[in-house]
Thiamine-monophosphate kinase (Actinomadura spongiicola), 612 residues
Amino acid sequence: MGTIGELGEFALIARLTRRLAPGPDVRLGPGDDAAVIAAPDGRVVATTDLLVEGRHFRLDWSGPYDIGRKAAAQNLADVVAMGARPTALLVGFAAPPGTDSDWAERLYDGLADECRAAGASVAGGDVVAAPAVTLAVTALGDLGGAAPLTRSGARPGDVVAVRGRLGHAAAGLALLTGGRAGPAELIAAHRRPEPPYRAGEEARSHGATALLDVSDGLVQDLGHIADASGVRIEVESSRVPVPEILGPDGLRHALTGGEDHAFAATFPPDTVPPPSWTVIGTVAEGAGVVVDGREPPTGAWDHFPT
Amino acid sequence: MGTIGELGEFALIARLTRRLAPGPDVRLGPGDDAAVIAAPDGRVVATTDLLVEGRHFRLDWSGPYDIGRKAAAQNLADVVAMGARPTALLVGFAAPPGTDSDWAERLYDGLADECRAAGASVAGGDVVAAPAVTLAVTALGDLGGAAPLTRSGARPGDVVAVRGRLGHAAAGLALLTGGRAGPAELIAAHRRPEPPYRAGEEARSHGATALLDVSDGLVQDLGHIADASGVRIEVESSRVPVPEILGPDGLRHALTGGEDHAFAATFPPDTVPPPSWTVIGTVAEGAGVVVDGREPPTGAWDHFPT
């Protein structure tokens, strides 16, 4: 059905908006100067990410539907990582005028479906032309009267636990980079993370002292908790979930691979985390992250590699 | 002090964050998975825009400080256009790794200063590498217990009024496109709009039935009110403010030029709008926008010109 340049801005917006079904938290959806979204707590949790073609996704490695799901997932996971319930997404979409409008519509289907999986919906956004496909996703959420679960609450003696897949997306990316097409499960994990959105609620109900989503890699992200809390985090590698499918580099992928959007939390001493969580270590006095008592492998994701 | 690629992601974020002073509405600022912002109304107004180098700004025509102010202004104006008080901005910033870090810091100074002018502050964001400088700005706001001022409330008999400069940014852009450097006031208007942020409060206190910010051009934006409200808007060109500085094309610039982020509102019959507003027409039964009883000049801003 032609390109988005042929459609023009307003027809394209109308077509994309039809893919979206505003949920109950959306008081006023697309079509005005701004959206209005429920924030019953009296505070709103808000986070934004920019995703750029060639850097955060490759058009030859991922289809539009998966790109949409992934872009939504990584922001919704950030809201959940504050212990909040996702309510709405705002999406800025930039693409070359020659982009097929069907492609754009499938992207929005992916955004809408991932929102639905997290209990949210797309409330508004912006559409512009640009040389490269770019997505700017803002996610909002509600704390429901509770304090936000930050990175700064870990205390010596706390237990460290994770929830969700680790290393799968990184292993899938390594396969694609090496020109391989399987195992399919790992390729799929790279294309579309599946954050366990209930993790925030689970962590909160078990008294979590800190929570974050693992986007840069487990060791690096635990480092953020260590820094913000002024503690040392000690990981036992034998307790880190490394399924066989991750292959010989499995532990490295699990420790350093980002983009699965698993969650890592600290819980007070002697807490038994929910069954879906895996205890992987403890919090101690000091600074930094150690794995089996040693400096961990590096492999940090820096968005500006030199 | 070098490029942002040399600095690396985390050092760059630290440096940019230092330019920002979170305001009283920011409960939790940059540094965690998400920000937490006050939303005392129990709803939050939210809008997002993507701005791309070469399309929304030119690096040879505008410096980083003005680009930052303009990017913030256009989103803050959207919040005000809902009758809300701006509370916070989230900023996604993409740039080539070779970008000078001073340049990026001046951009953030501009963002912070424009927020301050509107009573808001930057609460968080994202920094990534990309081939072109790209800004994704999300603005949030609070309705303070009032209903949002949408585009759909205009009724036949209402008066139509505007607040703020019209056509100045367009005239400035025309000068730059023609290789001219003055009048300085018009060039400055293109580089940095000055939305009258009190317009929302003024419109509300005088019972406005519809409100929007003029971003695409007065006629086109009044068309959005006409469409959403199911009415016809009749403009008298002799009442449209066209200062002499706009030159021989002044009326055309005022009717079709966007990006000044003036505000247009409708008020109930016989309302005398606040003194800072100028009545330019009336609302009638029907559809569309007419100027002096005729089809208005076109000159719509389409983000995907064919």
